[in-house]
Fold this sequence. Notes:
The complex is a heterotrimer. By secondary structure, chain A is mostly helical. Helices cover 80% and strands 0% of the residues of chain A.
Amino acid sequence: MSHDPSVWVTALLTLAIFSFLWRENPVFRFAEHLLVGVSAGYYVVQYFYSGIVKKLIVPVRQDPGTNWPLIFGGALGILMFARLFRRLSWAARYPVAFYVSSAAGYFIPSVLEANVLKQIGGTVTAPGTAMAAGTLPVVSSALLVLGVIAVLVYFFFSVEHRGPVGSLSRVGILYLMVGFGASFGYTVMGRITLLLGRFQFLLGDWLGLI
Amino acid sequence: MAGEKQGTLLSRLTTVDRRVIYLLMTLVVAWPMFKLVTLPVLISKEVAGFDREIEALTAGDHVIFAFDYEPDVMAELDPMSRAVMDRLFEKDVEVVALTLYPGGAGIAQPVLESAAREHNKVYGEDYVFLGYNPDWSGTMLRLGESIKATYPADQFGRDTRTMPILADCDSYKDVKLLVSICGSQLTEYWAALAGGRYGQKIVSGNTAVQAVFIYPFYQSGQIKGFLGGLKGAAEYETAIERPAFGVRGMGSQTMGHLLILLFVVIGNLGYLAARRAGTGGSGGVTGGGGRA
Amino acid sequence: MLERTLPILLATVAGLFMAAQFFIPHPAMLRIYNLALDWKQIVFGCTLMLGVVSLIRFHWRKVARRAPGAFYSGVALVSCLATIGTAFFGIETGLYPWLYDRVQAPMQATLFALLAYFVASASYRAFRARSVHATLLLAAGAVVMLGRVPIGDLIGFDAGGERWSLGSLASWILDVPSLAAKRGILIGVGLGMISTSIRIILGIERAYLGQSSGEGQGRS
Lengths: 210, 292, 220
């Protein structure tokens, strides 16, 4: 068993969170709100240090001749806090508009390439690359192409899902069910691993049993 | 009569108190930790691809290592981070570490420091931790223009312009490989922004939940290899012949999966029994989206 | 004008510029692009700080009004301010990293570890093979769960010089049908993102600006 007070603090807080499994209780609520408070405090320090100190104060001090335009970015950032005052909250629209729209701007070509064109490319080249590998890879790649088309048809709601479109859309649903099943299997895997991590701490670092 | 009794027993099984389920879960997952059984781990092609890219690095190459996760998924991703960092330092690769999560700084430091101690690496020369930067997408793009302008100071406030490791490394052009250990969709955006716009080669380690979404990027060649969940970590530890938490956890992982499957089977048997007895059965989720 | 028109104009100019610079690698464009990215990071840092300030304000009001749960709000407030206070003594060593290592990180990890129990409970009480679709979903889930642990590679047989196991079946499911489904979703989401981005840049989509009296989303 550990004699380090820090480990005991951690262990007791861990058990406080686990107590929720029995039922909601004041110990759990205390631990939950402690987590909210400590996290908020930790994060705001990180945000200030990385967003203001490292991105504004440090570069302007390092090279004021080149980096003085960053001050306007700082002004835009300060406008964000206008949201806290109802009468002035309209001023926060400027930094929000700038931020949202500039992100939207550079996402258009990047997402078009990565999420659309490259994905379509991967689909249509799959049968070609599978040809050298044998029958099963060719069948698999054909099923892949069919699946991508069927799923896209399922999500295309501008045309009524009847006749051949309806049949293809129903094939798409089957593919989606298999996909969700695979996600479920992986999700179970992930959650059990997280539990494993806490048991490692409680049984190993705290109680010294493993 | 006997059939009726069996039906009643099975349908009663579906109404067992959830705390009994929790207790079973605890016992089944914890037990293999006491009685360690090492199961053979086969390496999948995605992990082989990841390993290939790491092994292709040579001494002096620069790697960007992104600790894109927080304590909530630490149990899944820390084993990967430690294994990969060990291997990178073993190969004398120069590591430029950063994080796109505010809670990632506390995650990254112990991993970097313990690996650096083991391999006698010097901060500023062999590795650097640039820390957290807000605006993940802006950071991914800005790194393509200038690493030092993106991070004028490192996590500890030191001037990045004076660091030897960054003297000849200032953008993706100077970086051989980007390793994204990620608990969310950020890997996909690394592929889109750093990979798509700047042609940066990327490998990733992802949580099990996210790994399912990485397969399309792997198949299209946007990501050269990836580790998925604790199994991925176990496979990589096997590949580099350094078994650790990943390999050790496979016993508990296996038992946990078997228990969940048992629950699903018993739950469905009980549901069928209740339906046959005409009592309707409890709850239910359909594939099309009923209540969960 | 100041409240609505100028922000929308700013959005249009910024969005068009960021989309155009992808195709125009002129040094002047690159300088403005780099500056815009730096501004974005400063603005984002302030936005995140605003979130925490709002949280502090919410809990402060609860304590001041002695609303139900005020004690817990007090706990959150005190711990938040105490954590910020520790940062003044250094963020590399001392109480600030200790609070992260010993309080925040373990509790955050434990909160997510609870999900394992909820998945178990949901699997037992709610996951029913009520239809063909649900059965297919369950079957795929079962194969992947078994196939992605070492035991899955042991359950199988050798034929034609190859190993046919639950593990290889799970890999096939992930490489073909699951990949097809995820790719279809990915393409759909990508197209949706592009169309929403275009609507934002053209000023058609204005929900991100928030509402004031008498205003709503722009009509297309």
